[in-house]
Amino acid sequence: MKRHVSKHAVTIDTSKAKSNADVVRLCVKELGLVEFPLGRKELGCDIYWNEFCYNDNHATVGGRVNKFPGMEEVCSKMTLSRCLDIMRDLYPEDYDFYPCTWYLPAQYEDFCKEAEVKNAKKRKFKQTYIVKPYGGSSGEGIFLLKEPKNYISSYPSKRGTCHVAQEYVSNVYLIDDFKFDFRIYVVLKSLEPLEFHICKEGLARFSTVPYKRPTKKNIHESFMHLTNYSLNKRSKDFCHSEEEDEGSKRTLSSVMRRIDMDGKDSREVWENIELVVCKTIMAIVPEVKVAVHKTIITPGKTGPSFFQILGFDILLMDDLKPILLEVNSSPSLSMDSEEEVSPGVTKYVRSPKDEEVKFPLVRDTILLVLSPNKRKHCEKKRRKRLMHLKKLMSCNESVLSRTSSDVTTCVQMYEDGGEENVEDEEDEEVNQQMSELHLHMDLDCATNEMEEEKFETVPPDSDHKLQTQEGDLHNPDGDHEEALLEESCLKQLYPDPYQEECDQFHILGRVAKLYMNSLGVRKSAGMSSSSFRTFIRKCEFGKKGLTSASVDIMYLDLQRRWDNMNPDLSGLTLSFQAFLDACFEISKICFPAATKLEMLENFVGHCESHLCLRENED
Ligand code: ADP
């Protein structure tokens, strides 16, 4: 059956939203979106919401997709570490917020050597290491090591798995003796022009066994050392509490208040977290640009544009310095938590803390990425809905005692859509729902679409109250309605206010441009040997002493090194990461200077002028 959709309506495809569907559906109701739970093939939608990755949407021709192509890989433990390592090499003082990391088994020798050198300098506490499977998540397969060489003895059982080994941050800030980390949400709105926002509210996840610095005795206690919710929820000590500042999962703001109560300055902590986010985004954006560039869009069709909610896991050291642990490309947007209702029996129940954070996050993200006209349309619907809700609340105070999602559900209008003469039926249904709302306060409503006019439909038994507020109804854009909309939970970080701080880190963006410019016709495959040779020739590196033979050897070497480093991504071409290595090697030969950054800057400037690419274009 074809649905009738007004041309102003904002449409959303939730056919691949899966575990995100609940929270997205709340937003559908709140913003009056038109939801297509089974997808919309011919006409497409304004927004496509996927649970995991862009691949699910390769046929999309327009609209905005909530995942960037390739972001999953960019945020993987290895690629993220690699991006941050390179930035640390270039800007050692700025990129000191990520623990030193090695890729195993490929860098096992380096791991042992470097660890030995570092440990020799340490007097009191010897460094512990945390080893994580390359493709793992939710704390799975993670273990702690006191000695790097012990990796080999534990490795045979894990043969075939690649790991990252990382310096374990043992001097962490504790609350009531428990270790915790923050889940900070960041919205990457667009790459060109670059714009990203941070969510002002987030979550704090606590471990469930009081923390002690790692010793041989406690090194295996994952409920002490790991803060993952998915892991700790299995602990008998996991505490579900509805109180903001209690329990094993809390809101970020409640922890910040606690930090203030401890006599520290939470504002400074937050500013430092914002800087970590900015620097991390600057490190990964070049990779994401390359991935988007390589994505095959059906020839002759406009591709979609992308946005994404990212989840940053951040730990605080005992001096409150934030340390980035990882970036999640698909942070959980589930609003449920698993609770044991009787011994051995668990049940999913709505988690008010998750809802308090995730619903505004998704709602404001949707508003953020819409065109100004569509956003206005949604805001108008939202205001009307909230006005209506306010009136209903004044009709029956008992609504106030219900959770926001119950209330959201209660006031929804229902439209099946598409069938002729459906209006009368809908009005009847709206009336019936409203009556039930007042009689029973127990509606279960399946709304996909709201029409403005239908908000004029008033429950019969609330007539007298509504009439006393007639002015409100006929003044839909009045000031008091404006005041109903709380301000967005998202705060822009780039371009304003951090453009100046961030733009100094643009060098990798310029290298990414060289790479994209030099990819052959089959850009999705990566850089072939002939494209690499053409790049070298066009930049006239022959004149700077690079022979054709040395260029070919360099190409083969890098390809082999990267195959070895990450067999999952092996191919016959150069990835962007491998190309970056080539750039470092060539810049060392052709533009020797005191620092890596200086060499790379001279190299990039030289290439840009030979390839006629303007500097700092992005
Ligand atoms: P996963 O993707 O499997 O969740 P993480 O990198 O997030 O892996 O690590 C899981 C948990 O381990 C984190 O939530 C944190 O509590 C702890 N952790 C991870 N890395 C470190 C580290 N370098 N120092 C201290 N604790 C860490």
Automatic annotation (TrEMBL):
<keyword id="KW-0547">Nucleotide-binding</keyword>
<dbReference type="GO" id="GO:0000226">
    <property type="term" value="P:microtubule cytoskeleton organization"/>
</dbReference>
<protein>
    <recommendedName>
        <fullName>Tubulin polyglutamylase TTLL11</fullName>
    </recommendedName>
</protein>
<dbReference type="Pfam" id="PF03133">
    <property type="entry name" value="TTL"/>
</dbReference>
<dbReference type="InterPro" id="IPR004344">
    <property type="entry name" value="TTL/TTLL_fam"/>
</dbReference>
<keyword id="KW-0436">Ligase</keyword>
<dbReference type="GO" id="GO:0036064">
    <property type="term" value="C:ciliary basal body"/>
</dbReference>
<dbReference type="GO" id="GO:0015631">
    <property type="term" value="F:tubulin binding"/>
</dbReference>
<keyword id="KW-0067">ATP-binding</keyword>
<dbReference type="GO" id="GO:0005524">
    <property type="term" value="F:ATP binding"/>
</dbReference>
<dbReference type="GO" id="GO:0070740">
    <property type="term" value="F:tubulin-glutamic acid ligase activity"/>
</dbReference>
